[in-house]
């Protein structure tokens, strides 16, 4: 509320009531973000073109290398999906282990979860990359473990711990009366868990699970630090192939930012919508 | 006096576990340097991200439409892109565009060093999350409280700093706690632009002393302890801020 400077003696309550106008909250839609980025790149490239030299402008460089960079991005997505699959399966097991009635198993599961949740992703990635052998021999059969597979395992570990927490939280959020009701209907503990509690939890677990997925998708670029040739590694290589001009850094990394933004933002919006729809009051 | 180094030395001789940091003073110094850098990174980024987050939340709930759109865009972009790419974008992309001076020996000296760029980009990344967290806290402050403040003649800014923010802070502390722990873990990304923090130094040690497994254990324990200390401090803070009758 604005105080009229000329009338200091008048209390704010005595001023005429001003109805605040309601604005539509501005939102940055994906298309708008895309347009902004393209505009920025065009602006940068037109400034470059004025130099009138026979080198490619940043936009031309990106268009030229886009197929390679996008294939790298697809590899990132593949890693994230596989890590999510492994992590979810392991995480559900770990989450259920945290809910068992055997105290020892429960303690161990709790400790494992806390450990993997509190360690930085990059440190866990190093952990797996350096300590998992490059091939394993099972029953006389030698199975090679390529570095991307090891990186996937490295991402699956924190996913497992986070999913375990989500599972535990979701099961805890089901009212205890349901357990009692099922008990009185002579269901065993296992039956209650699998046929009554977990089916209800799926809905509650979906939004946080999607949040974790968005985090994994963004974390896959860490694999470039440990030498997996995914999008960021390719970006650095493209930059070197174009002569290592310093003004190419911003557009190339901007392109990587844009790819991840266009992939993660819709997931984020969808998660928010599901959260609103599933809201438990 | 030398009990600990001697013990670790005998451990190495007895079963081959080479914890070189604990008996080699050179390795120990490097490890301490890395730890110091991690602490500097985390403390500065935590403080900066809190400040940027609070200002962002103030602007986001404010009357200016352009500023609101700007903050919205900032939050959306920084939340949905990988922090590592952000660091690269800032350090390589923007760092090379900024004017640079030359040292006496003719070397290019950029305006901001890699450590400073790491601080800038990590603060912005965490601030994007903090804005959302603070906003949810502000929305939880009862409307009547804000109206009461207005009736008492508080300006918008004063009401925000003296009434809304202190209450909102108490509501959003658990979420804030989570985000700050996340930020502490994200400081390891500074490794990618060669900021000599713990991960970087530990990697130097293990590639020279050939003790990857032992240093991994030290590294994980270090971050476990750091996160534990941060969580402890935040819980203490949460308890000291508690107002009887507000919240739980």
UniProtKB/TrEMBL annotation, chain A:
Keyword terms: Amino-acid transport, Cell membrane, Membrane, Transmembrane, Transmembrane helix, Transport
Record-linked InterPro entries: AA_ABC_transptr_permease_3TM, ArtM/GltK/GlnP/TcyL/YhdX-like, MetI-like, MetI-like_sf
GO biological process, one term: amino acid transport
TM annotation in the entry: 73-100, 121-142, 148-167, 212-232, 252-271
Phylogenetic placement of the source organism: Bacteria, Pseudomonadati, Pseudomonadota, Alphaproteobacteria, Hyphomicrobiales
Sequence similarity: Belongs to the binding-protein-dependent transport system permease family. HisMQ subfamily.
Location in the cell: Cell inner membrane; Cell membrane
Membrane topology, as annotated: Multi-pass membrane protein
Key word Cell membrane present: yes
Organism whose genome encodes this protein: Methylobacterium planeticum
UniProt-listed NCBIfam families: HEQRo_perm_3TM
Domain (ABC transmembrane type-1): residue spans on this chain: 73-271
SUPFAM superfamilies, per database record: MetI-like
Annotated CDD domains: TM_PBP2
Any one Gene Ontology molecular-function term assigned to this protein's record: transmembrane transporter activity
Designated name of the protein: Amino acid ABC transporter permease
Cellular component, GO annotation: ATP-binding cassette (ABC) transporter complex
TrEMBL record, chain B:
Mode of membrane association: Multi-pass membrane protein
Keywords: Amino-acid transport, Cell membrane, Membrane, Transmembrane, Transmembrane helix, Transport
Pfam families assigned: BPD_transp_1
Record carries keyword Metal-binding: no
Entry's Gene Ontology molecular function annotations: transmembrane transporter activity
Biological processes per GO annotation: amino acid transport
Record localization: Cell inner membrane; Cell membrane
NCBIfam families: HEQRo_perm_3TM
Record protein name field: Amino acid ABC transporter permease
Species, as recorded: Methylobacterium planeticum
